[in-house]
Every structure is written in structure tokens, then in C-alpha cells.
Amino acid sequence: MNAADHLLGKTALARYGSRVALWCGDEQISFAELAMSVRRAAAAWEAHDARPGDRVMILLRDTPEFVAAWLGALHVGVVAVAVNDKLPAAERQFVFEDCAARVFLAEDDTAALTRTYAGDKCVSLSAWRHALAAATPRGRAATMRPTDPAFWLYSSGTTGHPKGIVHTHKDVLPAGAAMREILGLDEHDTVVATSRLYFAYGLEHALLGPLALGASSVLCPDPPDAVEATRLVARHRPSAFFSVPSFYRRLLGLDTDALKPFRSVRYCIAAGERLPAQVLDRWHAATGGEILSLYGMSETFCVSLMTPPGTSRAARTGLPVAGVETRLLDDAGGQVMTGEAGVLWIRHPALATGYANRPEATREQFREGWFCTRDVFVRDAEGFFSHQGRIDEFIKIAGQWVQPGEVEEIAVAAGAVAEAACVRVSDSDGFERLALFVTSGADPAMALEAVQRACENALPRHKRPKWIRAVAELPRTATGKIQRFKLRELIERELAG
Question: How confident is the model over 126-158, as pLDDT tens digits?
Fold first, then answer.
């Protein structure tokens, strides 16, 4: 088999060949045109001496050129490693060395810096375009075993260096299944997603899932802001809009009239972080629609849990999608009862083979076909899972467990802050305490006072943060996840001083 051929081979083109696969600005590309671009890109990879099994890095904006290069790598049996174009140079170099890339395809404005460590392995976008023009489109896709590596995803690095997650050709097969089975999307639909294609969430829902369904996807070369996203929705009238909770919050900062285009969107979906109840309620008030929660991870690539339409509540993360098995286990490895918290283990048809160059981490989290997510969930009587946080974020204060997300929700509910993040810090006597960071807006003093009052009124003493600090913005990874270790370091430096 070959994952690229699965999406753009003869069978797919016979059904969808003339339909629009990609929109990018004023450009529209049919499935047949995209398939030809992929075959040409495959020949270009061969011209740059990339062979089956070699890794190639792709550092491009979210354009049809990115799509052709990524799928062209799979077509010829090369392993695609896409990286964020906003990633710091040191992190790019780390990924380049960690995956031992044969070729590094980069935007022109980053190629010069990339050559300082990649040398002649770096190919600029301009040079790539010349190679494409000279290439004879490759014929048949390379025949690969289902378990042959197809692409790597790099984790977001919330606690340090990212890890390379190895996915195989068979892992592309479930892409789009939940979009079809839960949302009912097909070749007549269009989707818009704000998450980037190097990120698992964006890769499935803005590219591979729509391709598998014969649907059209709207690409944004650069990350859209709230105004641009609204314009895209107004122009393309998508059936589904995929984003993250913090982006929905930014959308809600617009006038209600500006959000009118979203009233025609059948499904709005959020993933990547906790969906606050306030955002869900305000979105319904502004647009009349609900936001469906979705849970996935780079290790499974495709969605694992999702709330079906009509069942969305802020506390709910979702039900397991078809083909996904779950276990909630306690510290001793036993299954927990309904309503009790446990760590989620998952068996997924798109589960990665493990972490590249990290045998200990692979052994720890990948066991006999199951993966330990390190996320804590509670399952209710209806079978819905509710995310409680990461196991390493739970904090024992005065002998009692504290969930940081509960403290964060109290802070945001106070109404004076936009975002909050709670972390564990050891005080000068070595006891674990809570530090709460909030984005304060125009009046930090008023915001801190409101949050302090809300915590005192709503939380028992052991759950109240010892330190509350206002920051301009929360530090995030390239994929938008909060880097809690950086917040912890702020308090540690304060205490040391």
C-alpha cells in the first residue's frame, strides 16, 4: 500500500478528480491537479537523492506547495517531517539532527540560516520550484508495507525538547473517519481550520481527512487572526470549522454582527486545550450554535474522543470514536469505577510505533498495543469522558489532590481575566504550593483583586493559590499549548531573589 496513493490514486480520482481539493486565496486546485503536483514533487525528492526510508524536513507555509511536497514524500516512500515555520532556530536544528534529515526544504527567507547547520542538505523554496519545473512526474507510487514509516510528528515540547513520533502508512487510513461518521461530511462539504498542517489536529482535519472524504479544504498560508478567519467563513461557507478554545475566545472579542457568518456553519469543533464553560455559553449566545469538543494527540494522529452534535457540555470531552478502545487506570493499574478519575490508556488504529531515538520513553508509554496518554479523565454513566488534566499537573496540597484546571476556571469566571494557568511550585520550606498566572488586560491590579476574591469565595483553603501574578501573555509552544514549566521558573526566580 501507499498512503498518498490511498488519498490520490486511481480510485480516489475516479470519484473526486474534477472536484476542488484545496482553496488557497483565489487559487483552487482540483484533486486531479493535486495528484499531478504530488507526482511531480515525488520526482523532485528523488532528484535530491532522497530514497525510501530517508527523512526529509519540510519548513513551508500552509500552501499547496507544502501539501504536494508532504504527500510527494509519501508517494516515493520518503518519510515526511513537517516543522513549524515559527519554530525558533535552535529547535529547528534540534529536529534536523534528531531525525537525521536527508533534505531540508525551507522557505527562502529561512534557508540562509538553515544552511548554517544543514549545509547543502538545505533546499530553498526557489530551488525546489526549479526542480519541480524540470521534473518528470513520477508514475506509480512506491509499494510500501503498511507498517513502513510514512511521517513523523514532533510533540509540542511543553516540558523540554520535542520528541519525534513515528507514524506509518496504515495510520493515514482512519483519517477523516470521525468527520464522516459523526459529522456526516462528504465530497459536497468544505472545511476551514485554523490549526497548522505540521500539527496533528490540522493535518487530519485541514488536509488528510478532507482528502479522504473528497471534501474541499481552505488553506491559510499564515495563521489567520479572528478577522481573517471570519472572512474565510463568510467567503467559503464551510460545513465545519476546526479551531482551539483560545481562538474561539478571540473570535468572541469581535462584535456580534461580525460573527454572523458562523451562523451558517453546521459544526464548530475545538481541541488542543480545555474548553471553558464561559466560551461555550458565549458562543451559543453569539451564533446560536454549539462547540463540539475533540480529543486527540500526536501519538494517535487521528481523533480519539469527540462529542457528537447535540451533546456538547463544557465538562465533556467526548465519546470514543469507532475503532478506538479505552481504559481508565489507577496508580496500581486497576480499572477505575464510573465517576472516578483515572489515567487514560488508548488503543487506536492510527497509533504510532513509538518515539524516535527514545527507547525508554517508548517502553514506558507504548505497551502491547496500548498507549498511556498521561491524561486524567472521568467517565460518566453515559460513557462520556471528561478531561481533568495531565497526571504530572495534579498537585497534592495538605494531603489532598488539587486539579489546576478547577482553579483556572474559577479565575476566568471572575470576569476580569482572559486566560489563567495554575502551576505547582515548592515554597522556601519545600512544601508544594500553587501559583496562578492570569492575563490581566488593561487593569492588572483590579484583575488580581477580582481573582483573589473569587478564589477565596469559591475554593477551600488548600486549593487557593499562594501566588497570583499577572502576565502580558501565557508562554506557549509552537502548537499553542501552555508551557507551564516557564511559569514555574518565574516564581522560582522570584523566590531565589
Answer: 999 999 999 999 999 999 999 999 999 998 655
Distance CA 192, CA 268 (A): 10
470: nearest Cα among 433, 432, 440, 431? 440
Handedness of CA 385, 291, 172, 300 (dihedral sign): negative
pLDDT at 157: 57
Q: Which of 168, 151, 211 is nearest to 219 (CA)?
A: 211
Alpha carbon 175 to its chain centroid, in Å, reads 14
Rounded CA-CA distance 223/228 in Å is: 9
**pTM score of the predicted model:** 0.86
Residue among 470, 464, 468, 466 at smallest CA distance from 439: 470
Q: How confident is the model at residue 89 (pLDDT cuts 50, 70, 90)?
A: confident
The residues pairing with 305 across neighbouring beta strands, listed in sequence order, are: 295, 320
Distances in Å between the alpha carbon of 91 and those of 83, 159, 456? 10, 13, 41
% residues pLDDT > 70 (the chain): 98
Q: What is the DSSP string of 55-66?
A: EEEEE--SSHHH
pLDDT of residue 426: 84
Does pLDDT of 159 surpass 60? no
DSSP string spanning 372-415?
EEEEEEEE-TTS-EEEEEEGGG-EEETTEEE-HHHHHHHHHHTS
% helix, strand, coil for the chain, step of 5: 40, 25, 35
Cα separation, 15 vs 140, in Å, equals: 19
pLDDT at 405: 80
Percent of the chain with pLDDT over 90: 76
Which residue type does 234 have? A
Does residue 10 have a pLDDT over 60? yes
The beta strands (E) that lie in 66-205 are given as 79-82, 103-106, 122-124, 149-154, 164-168, 190-193
Question: Would you give the DSSP letter of residue 208?
Answer: I
Tell me the torsion sign for CA atoms 262, 266, 271, 274.
positive
The residue ranges of DSSP E strands in 116-275, in sequence order, are: 122-124, 149-154, 164-168, 190-193, 216-219, 240-243, 267-270
Task: Tell me the CA end-to-end span of the chain in Å, nearest whole number.
Answer: 60
Query: Across the chain, what does the average pLDDT equal?
Result: 92
C-alpha cell at 401: 489532590
Amino acid identity, residue 197? L
Which residues 6+ apart lie within 8 Å of 91 measured at CB? 157, 161, 162, 478
E strand or H helix at 425, and its extent? strand 420-426
Q: How far apart are CA 73 and CA 104, in angstroms?
A: 12
CA-wise closest residue to 125 among 109, 139, 106: 106
Query: Cell digits for 271?
Result: 481541541
- Cell digits of residue 466: 499562594
At residue 463, the pLDDT reads 87
Average of pLDDT values for 448-454? Answer: 91
